[in-house]
Amino acid sequence: MLNIQVRGSKVDSVVGSISQEQMNRVFDDIKDKKYSLAEIMLNSEWQLHDDIFSSSTPIITSESELIITSYDSNDYYSEGHSFFRSKVTDIMQKIPIQNSIDFKDQFYIIAHCAISYGNSFETELNDLDYKFFDKESISITSSTYPYFRLPVIKDLFLNNIKLVDLKRQKNDLRQFISTIYKKRASDDVGFLSSDNFLKFYDVIIDSKIDIGLK
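-> structure tokens emitted (214 positions)
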């Protein structure tokens, strides 16, 4: 059995619509409770702001590593052999795929990004062995989001087969970001990418808190 992991940072993000009334209540809370937007949202059900977009994916940084370990069985207490380790940046395609998102012509939108560190991707392949592994069979595509500045992993392939994350959640939350945007253009807004997102939306408030280890 092969266990395939990406170790490094991960972003869980949602983007949703927010009404004028909801936004006013948020600003009242900021004023009355003396908390930042990020603090208020982290302590609320921020994951529900997902009617526009949601995603959970590893972030590509200089620290991101791909590690492949071979096990003789499904018993994790047996001694595994980590036979392949590489920087993600050495494997990924160099030109990110533009991830266009349909913002549905919303006047106000809110985006949340929870950034954690640890095991950001993990999958297992029961019918493969390290003796038959070829490093040229691994490929990683990258992507960008209009509201997030760092590239992320879009898909990870082995032998042209897309690998599926088992979502074992072995991560520690390190940073939380909340941003509210206001539509600036009178034109209808549909699918936007990193290239044109800020031509249609202005930042009203951008808030970030660091959590745990520095």
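The mean pLDDT is 91.
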